[in-house]
Fold this protein.
Amino acid sequence: MTSERLQEIAGRYAKLRLAVVGDFCLDRYLEIDPARAEISIETGLPVYNVARVRSQPGAAGTILNNLVALGVGDIFPVGFCGEDGEGYELLRALGSLPGVNPAHFFQTPARRTFTYCKPLVMEPGQPPRELNRLDSKNWTPTPPEVSERIANSLEMLRGTVDAVILMDQVDIEETGVVTKSVLARAGSLERKAAAIPVLADSRRGLRGFPSVIFKMNAAELSSLTGMPADSSVDEIRRSTVQLAEQNRRAVFVTMAERGLVGALPDGRSEHVPSLALRGTIDVVGAGDSVTANLATALAAGADLREALTIAALASSIVIHQLGTSGSASIGRMGELLGSAAQLKF
């Protein structure tokens, strides 16, 4: 890929409309100043003094952050939060992002706000050091009326956007946004609606998902297909092709330091290598950057290899952003593409 072709594809992003249907959480970062450490008089335990609090959308919100960084024109988050303080913070964070239309994101007393609270020790001259995370999750099934509202928003948007991303982030099935009833509606729409990229990703794997574009890592591909966990790149590529032919939709697989592979239902496939590391890395958010960039590039008319290349550039930038779930701009990708010309992108 040339820089000129990257700019040509990215030049269409401002006119795109994308929907992100999934589990939006609040990423709350507590930046701890170790120079202000104390011992509690009451308990005798160490006290971590928080010097700064940062809040931003996480999980499906990390995908949304990447779409914002890419300059996508209209972005529709579809999901829910609770009627709690974390929900207020999440709504405020979503509302501050350019191009984001929260008309299909709602508060409900039936759910609490999914929250990742991340204490970070900020030592001068050192990368942030994360302590034990404090999570707030929903442990009961999502009420049917909440799922129905999500499904209705998906159906309403499906005919008006250029791509849809389905992001299932919860650990326990049926406790989040992407429930079986939402997936059933997505499958029904896929069978009768005009073809646009509908890309799905799930931390529990994509078994049971309708025939949409699958994005997963190599371990998830192994679990889904029975492919040996220690498979070579060529073996992963063949398995990806078989799954794409079976699903009649494209399949994308991330392989960490071995890069990315993608396959189309007609048997065509591509492998794009990872870029060399340029220092300390933090892989949090890398997969979400791949998801966001694949969906956007495909919606803008990129071919298979171009979409993989753009996703590889973005993830390489994100893993070098420490202490946050990062994102990558087209400008930064263009710079990296120029310096990575030896990889024959």
Notes: The domain at 3-337 is CATH 3.40.1190.20 (UDP-N-acetylmuramoyl-L-alanine:D-glutamate ligase). The mean pLDDT is 93. The first strand starts at residue 17 and ends at 22.
